[in-house]
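INPUT
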Amino acid sequence: MNMLIYLIPIALFLSGLGLFAFLWSLKNGQYEDLDGAAWRALQEDPPE
Amino acid sequence: MLSSRIVGPGLRQTDLSVPQVHCGTCITTIEKALKTLPFVDRARVNLSTKRVSIVWKERTGTDPADPAALAKAIVNATGYDAHLFVNAEDMGENLQRELIRAVALCGFAAANIMLLSVSVWSGAEAATRDLFHWISALIAAPALIYGGRFFYQSAWHALRRGRTNMDVPIALAITLSYGVSLWETMHHGEHAWFDATVSLLFFLLIGRTLDHIMRDRARSAITGLARLSPRGAMVIGEDGSHEYRAVEDILPGNQVAIAMGERVPVDGIVESGASDIDVSIVNGESAPRSVKAGDAVQAGTVSLTGSLILRATAAAKDSFLSEVISLMEAAEGGRARYRRIADRAAQYYSPAVHLLALTSFLYWGLAGGDWKRAMLIAIAVLIITCPCALGLAVPVVQVVAAGRLFRNGIMVKDGSAMERLAEVDTVLFDKTGTLTLGRPTLIDVGKATPCHLAVAAGLAAHSRHPLSKALYGIASGPIPVFDGVEELPGKGLQGRTAKGMYRLGNRRFACGENNDEAADPSTLEVVLSRDGQELATFRFEDQIRPGAGLAVGKLSAKGFSTGILSGDRRGTVRVLAQRLGVDRWQAELSPREKAEFCETLAKEGRKAVMVGDGINDAPALAAAHVSIAPATAADIGRQAADFVFMHENLESVPLAIDVSRRAGRLIRENFALAIGYNIIAVPIALAGHATPLIAAIAMSTSSIIVVANALRLNRLAATEHLATAPAGSTQMPSRKAHFA
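OUTPUT
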């Protein structure tokens, strides 16, 4: 049962990482222009 | 000229709205064009919101930047109109972000607590179970505060006004279940409801967020259109100086210069000049009206053939528009009286639930004497009956329906609009600009000889009168070139060639002053003459909007009664009504009469949808049970309408009604499912057999069933199709050109 001492924090940390990644991408504007991003992937010019 | 905000030392940001961007090439073209300007730091096109945000330097070297060049660069590169985007709508966007963050946090909390709960259900004992419960309590607390506040606020607002809504039982259930779980945890109890509390919150927040996203998308698309209206006009000062002023700053008594093709910003009297003005958007009359010095013109009309100097008689806020606005306010239609279906359900649902929980508490307490157990059972009842499925039932269906309408170029302002549209039994149309395009076309083209048509087109090329444009547009083959064509407002065009003097215009002008042959007022005619001798007569009529006949046919077939409310002349309206097969029509109506007609219908107990576009329709749009406007409508009409359609095709109207009705049916089905689930689950809870495991299973199953049922709307709707272009490549009809 002592395993739980490590496992629970690890589980919480990992899902916390996922939450953080999502909140970061939201704040960073990754979801601002979903239609535009689809088109930009097809552009030939290298992004600046 | 362009407002901007400071984003860094010497850097400013300007947001422009470009409603016509629609593809990857637009993005590249606009961004490239802007980056060639020396003072632009960075530019980025947002295709979803159709906006361009540009960060620019205040000065490069010693030259101050010229922000007006930004809009010009976009117009030159793409031909699209660019308008200043005013940051007034950011409130909604912020709320949406908050909601998404709350969903993410609650999702995180729900997943972790569920993980711990599974261990408890599978047999964790004593100290381990307590530890798991304590950790769950710790995770649930912030989620409850951060995610629950939306429901607490809404429930509090409702309670304070002595009403109840769906959020009251939600707020009560999540608070009580958390409190009792915490109490159980402290006393080493066997059951804790943290998983139920948080997953309930998670599902409900998803519903709330979807509802919000739908409204936000429609709003941003509609505000993009709003920028097409005039923002200023040239004012002539006492000393003859010219100054470009915002519409709001034009005072009564100012002299305003209106160039050919410009929209009149305020009510005024013509001081000098003459022109034909397009009044269709103001009073629905399809024929342009000629004005000369001394005539009054109303705000919103367009000068077509000449430039005018006006003396403003009213400020913008007191102009014709304001009269319409006050009528609109008086005519609070279906919107104000209508209560959302979810609120009506809550009206019965929440007292019933609370009564049930209280009864079971008293029963178990009095019968068994164990008040703690009675408390637990009462809370189990509250959690089981918590309107999770009900909370999702309405928004999920409406989001799916709105998405489907959006793909067909129809924007919905909010969910209540769809609920109201589903109840409609009468469809009223405006004529000019709604059933017709407000664009004249030549009738019996075959009768005109090609050489006369070519001559007429050669003259017409020099004018922007709608009839001239229609003539020019229809001519094919070589067109003679005229030099020195003169346009006489209110009369027509004349051009001299070796063969003689050609005239194109009204009969009196073309064939000499003494010719007084009365023309049929229901059609527009233009006469071509040489030296006063009539060569050809061209007759025009307003072009019927594509799909109008089909739309009216479909509506009649489904048992709707149809009608036309028009400000145009009797003859024109009668012909159109007969041609389209519309049951009832009324002509020569003022804006007030239109609104009154809608109110009379409402008093008879009929629910009418008004489809209209003009300023004169705005009061009727507000007075009707629900309203639809085309994207070409006047700003005020578009704002008053619940639905806005982007395509020219009028089949959007039956489509919107159809989808709304299906959505209404699915919502009722969802309610039935949710209530059916309660009928099974509540006796279990009342009997005292509901454990957290049963609650979790029941809640998730009912939510999934409700969502799956809502998604059927997409499948049902896929079987029919609308003969229009996909929403992405929306073409806006040409009246927009006058706004620019």
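end of record. Chain B touches chain A through 23 residues (CB under 8 Å).
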